[in-house]
C-alpha cells in the first residue's frame, strides 16, 4: 500500500495520470532508440540483430603491435617507468563491449507475441469482470480523459483486432521458424516485452470511462448497428495490411538462403513487412479515436514508437543489403512505405 501511495503522490506532483504515463513510456522508448542510433559506438553494438548483426559490432579491437619505444623498454638497461594509464575512451569502449555481450537468442522474438496474446486474454477477463488490476489503472485515469471516452463497441473492435495481430504473429513465429544462432541485445528483448505489455493497455485505456459506466453483455458482440465510416475504412485497412505482412513473412521463410528478396512487394521497398506493421497500428490509431477526436493519442504514441523502431531497423537492413549485394541493388528502394519513407 505504501508503494501505491507513493505512486499516487508522484502522479499528482507531476500532474499526470495513467494515460499520460503510457504515452510517456512510448515516446521515451522511441527517443531512447533514436539516441542509441546516433553515435556509432552504440548503434553498431546494440541495434543490429539477426542476420544484420556482425561479429565486428561487439568484438574487441585487436591489441596494437608493440612500438619501437615499447620494445626498447624491455631491454635490461632500460629505466623502469610508471605504466601509462589507459585512455579514457578505451575504458568506455570496454564497458560497451561488455554490455553488448548481454544477449539472448533471436528466437526469443516469439516471446513478444506470447506476451501480446497473453495480454489480450488477460485484459479481456479484466474488462468483462472489472478486475482489480483494471480498477487500479482505470481509477488513475483523470476525469478529463474519462469523459472523452471511446465507445464500448470501439474498445471491443480494437481489442479483437489487436488480439488477431498478436495471434497471427505468434502463429507465424512457429510455422516460419528456422534454426538460427542469431542473437539480439537483452535491452532490445526487454523493450519489446515492455512494448507489447503497454500496447495491451493502450488499446482500451482511453475507453475506461465507458467500461466503468456500462456493463459488457452479449449484445455488444452482435454489431447490429451500422458501422461508422471510420470502421468501414480502418478495419479493411488493418486486414489488408495484415495480409500483405503475412505474404512477406511467408516469402522470406521460403527463401533457401538469405538472398536479396525479389518478391513484387520487395522490388521497390526494402522492408514492406515493416510498412505493413506501421499501417496496422495506424489503422488502430484512427479506429480507437474517442468521439470528437481525430486519433487516439495513446495509440498515436504507440505508433510513433513502432515507426521509429522499425524505421531504424529498415535503415540497418538497407545498409546491410548494400554491403552484401552491392549499392546498386537497393539504393533506389524505399525503406518501408513508397513515396513516404
UniProtKB/TrEMBL annotation:
> What is the scientific name of the source organism?
Penicillium oxalicum (strain 114-2 / CGMCC 5302) (Penicillium decumbens)
Its UniProt entry gives the catalysed reaction(s) as:
a di-trans,poly-cis-dolichal + NADP(+) = a di-trans,poly-cis-polyprenal + NADPH + H(+)
Location in the cell reads:
Endomembrane system; Endoplasmic reticulum membrane
Q: Look up the record and name the pathway of this protein.
A: Protein modification; protein glycosylation
Report the main location listed first in the record: membrane
Give a yes or no for keyword Transmembrane helix in this entry: yes
Going by the entry's taxonomy, the superkingdom of the source organism is recorded as Eukaryota
Which Enzyme Commission number(s) are on file for it?
Answer: 1.3.1.94
Q: What segment(s) does the record annotate as region Disordered? A: 53-90
Any one Gene Ontology MF annotation carried by this entry is: 3-oxo-5-alpha-steroid 4-dehydrogenase activity
Q: What topology in the membrane does the UniProt record assign? A: Multi-pass membrane protein
Which ranges are annotated Low complexity under compositional bias?
53-78
Q: Give every 3-oxo-5-alpha-steroid 4-dehydrogenase C-terminal domain span.
A: 204-341
Enzyme class, spelled out? oxidoreductase
Which GO BP terms apply? dolichol-linked oligosaccharide biosynthetic process; polyprenol catabolic process
Q: What sections of the protein cross the membrane?
A: 21-42, 108-129, 150-166, 186-205, 265-288, 294-314
Q: Which GO terms describe its cellular component?
A: endoplasmic reticulum membrane
Protein name, please?
Polyprenal reductase
Q: Which family does the similarity line name?
A: Belongs to the steroid 5-alpha reductase family. Polyprenal reductase subfamily.
State the protein's purpose.
Plays a key role in early steps of protein N-linked glycosylation by being involved in the conversion of polyprenol into dolichol. Acts as a polyprenal reductase that mediates the reduction of polyprenal into dolichal in a NADP-dependent mechanism. Dolichols are required for the synthesis of dolichol-linked monosaccharides and the oligosaccharide precursor used for N-glycosylation.
Q: Which UniProt keywords apply?
A: Endoplasmic reticulum, Membrane, NADP, Oxidoreductase, Transmembrane, Transmembrane helix
